[in-house]
Amino acid sequence: MPSSVLIVEDSASIALGYAAQLQSAGHKVDVSETLAEAKAALRGGDFDVVLLDLQLPDGNGMDLLGRSSSGDKPPPAFIIVTADGSLTRAIDAMRLGAYDFLVKPVAGERLLTTVRNAAERGRSARKAQAPTRADTANGYHGFIGKSPPMQQVYDAIENIASSKATVFVTGESGTGKEVTAEAIHAA
User: Fold this and answer.
1) Better pLDDT: 42 or 132
2) Helix/strand/coil for 5
3) Does a cis peptide bond (omega within 30 degrees of 0) precede residue 149?
4) Beta-ladder partners of 77
């Protein structure tokens, strides 16, 4: 399925190469050459994946990690593509939320596969976050409460409910394990 990809790369020839490969696979591609351009593109666009070089003329690409184009949906999947393939940088990038860390030069098939997988993960995250929850003003499947911690519980229940995995609910007596189990089944 085609995705929207932002390429943040200061080398025009590399950016054009990535763009040509991705466009031939049906993806919509935008290119930013600087950190400032990338920040503006993320504010104004809706991207599934960001291919991010770390060494940019106006700053470090790590500053973009975790930024979203909109606060009401998960951020795009960030794929780091850099010439500096040090283990320290890779670990730092993954800790900050990067989906993958690729070292230049990147083979075309590897690039396409990584972008496809990252976009699928992002679509799954957005689908899981879609507003399928019942109105919490009158309670949520036996729960009452609208506080942020309860909203997190409701979100967890919604995410779990769409899974076929076995769930083991634990907690102290009186914390609502049975209500939680019933809510998972109801959702």
Assistant:
1) 42
2) strand
3) no
4) 49
